[in-house]
């Protein structure tokens, strides 16, 4: 038993690194349970749209939206969500698929929508970039 204490003392940097890795691992594993938004692949997004009639919400600015967006998407930039919540009332009980450029902003927006009572929230993993990499259709205004 004394030897293990001595070993830990001599290799404290390794044990600190181990503790950090374990904390990060537990955080990542537990994080999926409480997330407001479920990340889904472009293929899963197509299934969600086709099978469940998901509402598609593009949270990028209007210039990016006009340059190319998922067909049928509604454009409400992230910063304007609180003032334009009424436009999403019809989607409150349906699945709501959020996307941005790379998938980072849509998750944050989903957390905000969750606080306003939206339940079935999904974020397109990789955003419109991942959608285009799969050669899925994009509309341009």
CATH topology of the largest domain: Oxidized Rhodanese, domain 1
Strand content: 5-15%
Distance between the termini: 71 Å
- Label the overall shape: elongated
CATH architecture of the largest domain: 3-Layer(aba) Sandwich
Total helical segments = 6
Low-pLDDT parts are: none
Helix content: 40-55%
The radius of gyration is 20 Å
The number of strands is 7
Side-by-side strand order of the widest sheet: 1-6-5-2-4
Please state the structural category: alpha/beta
Largest sheet: 5 strands, parallel
CATH class of the largest domain: Alpha Beta
Helix-strand topology string = HHEHEHEEEHEHE
| Arithmetic mean of pLDDT | 88
The CATH homologous superfamily of the largest domain is termed Rhodanese-like domain
Please indicate the count of domains.
Answer: 2
Explain the overall architecture:
The protein is an alpha/beta fold and 141 residues long. It folds into 2 domains: 2-33; 36-139, 3-Layer(aba) Sandwich (Oxidized Rhodanese, domain 1). It is built from 6 helices and 7 strands; from the N terminus they run ααβαβαβββαβαβ. Helix 5 links the parallel strand 5 and strand 6. The termini are far apart.
What keywords describe this structure?
alpha/beta; Oxidized Rhodanese, domain 1; 2 domains; 5-stranded parallel β-sheet; two-stranded antiparallel sheet
